[in-house]
Amino acid sequence: MYKRMKDINYYSIFDRLDKVTGLPFKRKGRKWHSASYIDGTPHRRWDKTTAYMKGGKIIVVEQGSPAIDIWQMLSDRGMTDLQVGNFLRSETDSHYVTPAFIEPPATYVYNSCMNKTLHKYSDNLFKFLCTIFPESRVKEAYDLYKVGSRGDNPVFWCINKEGQIGHDKEMPYILYTGKRDKRMTINEDGREIMVNPPKRVYKTKYGFTATPAFGEHLLKKYSSEKVYCVESEKSALLFFLMYRKLCLGLGGSSCLFKAPEGSVLLGDKDDAGFRWLEKGAIKWWESYEIPTEDGDDIGDVIIKLRKNLVE
């Protein structure tokens, strides 16, 4: 006699995601975070891989890569569709009742906290930008986008359309090149860590769960103009400085959901950026005569163009 196959209950699997996937997931509210790549290789970042429920599916995102569902994740491990289905059914509790979850309201940063960082212009990125653009123009961009400084590091404030400050993003840069400071050192435990890592004072675990795009607060001001979107905050600044057009920094290749409808997508020239093309991104590198390399973003090209002008 035909026996009905057990349905997959993704909610019950999600509650045991660390055991089901074998990744070192730690749960925080409605998300799981893992200090590892999606294949389990350890990573220094506590949230290198994140998982959450969306549309009844388990979505897994490795920072810097597109989001995939758990079915695709298991397929990428070499399992056939039949094996994936059987495995997920075996991990399903058919009697599981999804508990009600009320999303707590996001906490927002006080304006006074942000204002303490503004108009200092002391950071390395500001000083570098002033070598390829007039200082007055860089100050204008910093003031417009609400970029602050903490010592040598710029602070990108992510503010929504209503003017509410979601969180800060402090990013280190090298003075003479304008590139991210990714220098590494070995700590006393023998692990490799960044000398000057990116920082957030207003963290998700403290209730600062809102994640506006960098520059989002300017959408009302530029409501009649076309909006451009890139991955990094630095590239958004460079695009505005070069073309005087509003450009949002989405914060990574997996953050396309932050892009306003109808905006022009300018992904990085790499594997993750190429996936932006499926969402309508343009091949901006074909519009420049200057050579580009794999891994470049449009900010890299703007820097090359400006250096050619000032040299």
Explain how this protein is built.
The chain has 3 domains: about 10-90, no CATH class; about 105-210, no CATH class; about 215-310, Dna Topoisomerase Vi A Subunit, Chain: A, domain 2, CATH 3.40.1360. It has about 300 residues and is α+β, with helices and mostly antiparallel strands. The chain contains 10 helices and 13 strands. The strands form 4 sheets. A 5-stranded antiparallel beta sheet has the order 1-2-3-4-5. The protein is about 25% helix and about 15% strand. The chain is globular. Strand 3 and strand 4 form a beta hairpin.
CA(first)-CA(last) distance: 81 Å
Summing up helix and strand content along with how strands pair, one would put the structural category as alpha+beta
Instruction: Give Rg in angstroms.
Output: 22 Å
**Secondary structure tally, helices:** 10
* Total beta-strand segments: 13
Defining traits:
311 residues; alpha+beta; Dna Topoisomerase Vi A Subunit, Chain: A, domain 2; 5-stranded antiparallel beta sheet
